[in-house]
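DOMAIN: structural biology
WANTED: fold as tokens
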Amino acid sequence: MLSLHRILLVAGLLAAVSAAGQLDEIFSWNQLEFAWPNEQAKQEALHSGAYIPANNLPLGLARWKNKLFVTVPRWKAGVASSLNYVELEPRNNTAALIPYPSWKANIIPKDNKIDIDSVVSTFRVTVDSCDRLWVMDTGLADILGEGNQVAKPALVIYDLNTDKLIKRYEFQPSDLKEDSFFANVVVDVNPGRCDEAFAYVPDLGAYGLVVYSCQENTSWRVQHNFFHFDPLKGDFNVGGLNFQWTDGVFGLALSAIQNDGYRTMYFHPLASTKEFSVSTRVLQNKTIATDPHSYYLFKIEGEKGDLGQASASDLDETTGVVFMTQLNRDAVACWNPRKPLSPNTLALVAQDKERLIFTNDLKIDSEQNLFILSDRMPSFLYTELDPNMVNYRIFRIKVADAIRGTVCE
């Protein structure tokens, strides 16, 4: 007779497989293609090495109306364009990526003198409720090769209604450390108060958080022990590859506005299975945020369990549920913060040992659609991808469908 524990485990696995079956695979590529101005431009880029198809890996996403933004970091030489979008309708599962806001803004000149609205290399972007696209530009090209620091790390903000640059804010020297690396950004804005927005940018390489105030047009760096990786949780097995990472604070998710007018920011290092939180009341006050005595204002939410390492996370304000990737499990999980976090309150909402290898990013849009991007990145970094098979996928599922029947509901 099956034990109760085994029955629950089997039921959980069946639920995960069922949810994976509901995923709508809206885009898939063997290799990325771009919407070149003409065939001659493409052939010239191929000939010069400005475009090496195998070196273009999609990593981050965000949705605004009919645009689904897709980032392509300049891990290697030959990335055609780092900031792009595809149109959701009319549907084309292998759509070519369209550079945003233009081709020119995504091309690195030979003298490295970029325009103010240019994007050198971005990992993740976010869309706020004020119709703005926030881009964290690392400014670093050919990361795994020569490492060309074309520009300073900067937040680049666009007006999505006009496709025009609003602001480029370069990080201050005090924001940066020797090993700083910025691969994410979330934006905190209250309805009708667009000019008072805050951006939170995790530094996964030097274990900190940069806070940017739109109103004051300045930034400050926050330090905390919870931003560091867990040395016991840096071992990964993904897509048949074993590797070790030391990435610190990475995934950020903001709650709805609380009674005190602030949000809760849930966060975790990538090489960790724990989840933490802090009120944005702490982060938005430079004096408090940078005061060592604020240590105890940060809280531990709980433990995700073995193999629970996550990259990206996002929170659905309607249900209050947090979604997070599960890199070692080829999956996506959910957690309802109304319940203490533990392996029993973390549920897999989708798992697929083929289609969800390395769930790199996820985002929830204003219509409660959950978008998931998987890209086999470890194979891209450490071996090579087979151009004859599907390597990159983007899925969509309604939040309500994803959590139905789970402990998150």
Summary: Confidence is low (pLDDT under 50) at residues 1-15. The radius of gyration is 20 Å. Residues 34-308+374-389 form a domain with the Neuraminidase fold (CATH 2.120.10.30).
